[in-house]
Amino acid sequence: MTAPRVPAPLIDAALVCAALADTWANVAPDNRVGLACALPAAVALLLRRHLPVAALALTLSAALVTDAVLAPLIALYALAATTRSRPLILAGAAAFTACYMLPWPPPAIDRMDHTTALIDFAYSLAMAAAPAFLGQLVQARRDLSLRLAEITEAREHERLLIAQTVLAKERAQLAREMHDVVSHQVSLIAVRAGALQVGTHDPETKEAATTIRRLCVRTLDELRHMVSVLRASGSLPTDLTPQPTIAELRQLVDYSGIETELDLDLPDDLPPPLQRAVYRTVQEALTNVRKHAPGATAAVRVQHAGGAVLTTVTNTAPTRPTLALPSARHGLIGLRQRAELLGGTLTTGPTPEGGYRLQLRLPVD
Fold it and tell me: Which residues are within 8 A (CB) of 318 and not within 5 positions of it... i.e. 6 or more apart?
């Protein structure tokens, strides 16, 4: 808890009164010259805040003709506490030393005592050095306080940045969880509801499945919006979930473990949602070939024709027995829903040669 600051006018009044009291104690009433110098010097202290050099110059006359030196000492302290010019402070201290050491009017040369003059010089110099050093000390303390305040503010700003960074990481983690877990689960619910909607003949069940699927789609839209907000305030979306593109199809085909022929003829400016849909479709189709047609070869053809992107994945008949593998059987349904969301169609079916064909058609607009 800081102490309350004393008002500046009250300090000025107290210093002027102290200088007047010093004049009353050290200047005789009949010394008109001394009073003419000491009284204005006390009033000149009011200028020390804004005009410290002028205040010191107006008070030096009191030190020259009288012993009332409180006013010039206060003015010298104010000069040392406000200015950053060391030569100016030294000049002020030297001027006070000269005015205080040399009496006025000056004595005759033969009456001067060198020993006394040396003592007076040392005493005057010490008297001038005290307020000068004190003023410099107060100035250094004030600068140190300002520096500490700046350091405190910088640390507070750094702490705020660290807190924002932690919050951004938490938001990014939350976005990942929502994208990878919540959205996936809601998508499965939508897929199951769509399957129930298509497979049932009961009107009430069909209506309930339709409602569930509609709510799931709406929830997914809201989740996508929330994830985009979290990503915008956390980190870049590309840092959260890698988004596949058409350029990665070659790597997908090479690492599929299936002898696959790839025919790719697409423009470079294909919208990202279409690129992801094509990639996921080819990925799911090759997965199904690997699971349900062991030993088969595949052909992937992606072309742009008639204002649409046509993706066709065809595989030959299996050459080895099919193994029973666990499957949720939601892959094709999910691809069909993705196609519908983009305004396209997905068709699948066996080929006359005993293989299987999957065809995705997406409008470019």
Answer: 292, 293, 294, 295, 296
Tell how strand 298-305 and strand 260-265 pair up.
parallel
Residue 49's identity, in one-letter code, is R
Q: How far apart are CA 31 and CA 237, in angstroms?
A: 89
pLDDT digit string, tens, across residues 206-218: 888 888 888 888 7
**DSSP string covering 110-131:** GG--HHHHHHHHHHHHHHHHHH
Longest CA–CA span in the chain (Å) reads: 139
pTM: 0.45
Q: Are 101 and 114 in contact (CB under 8 A)?
A: no
Per the listing, tokens 């473990």 go with 257
Q: Is 234 within 8 Å of 171 (Cβ atoms)? A: yes
Q: What is the pLDDT of residues 267-315, one digit of tens each?
A: 877 888 888 889 889 988 888 888 788 889 999 999 988 889 999 999 9
Beta strands 356-363; 298-305: pairing state = unpaired
CB 246 within 8 A of CB 276: no
Give me the DSSP letters along 276-309: HHHHHHHHHHHHHHHHHSTT--EEEEEEEETTEE
CA distance 318 to 256: 16
Query: Which DSSP letter does residue 46 get?
Result: G
**Residue keyed to tokens 């999910």:** 334
Q: Is 76 exposed, middle or buried, given 0-12, 13-18 or 19+ CB atoms closer than 10 A?
A: buried
Handedness of CA 62, 63, 68, 71 (dihedral sign): positive
CA–CA distance, 71 with 82 (Å, rounded to integer): 17
Q: Which residues contact 209 (CB under 8 A, 6 or more apart)?
A: 193, 194, 196, 197, 200
- The one-character DSSP state at 247 is G
Task: Report helix angle 52-65 to 86-101, nearest 10.
Answer: 20
356-363 vs 345-350, strand pairing mode: antiparallel
* Other Cβ atoms within 10 Å of 249 Cβ, number: 21
Residue 235 to residue 201: CA distance in whole angstroms: 47
Sort 286 into a burial class: Cβ within 10 Å, 0-12 / 13-18 / 19+. buried
Is it true that the peptide bond before 105 is cis, omega within 30 degrees of 0?
Answer: yes
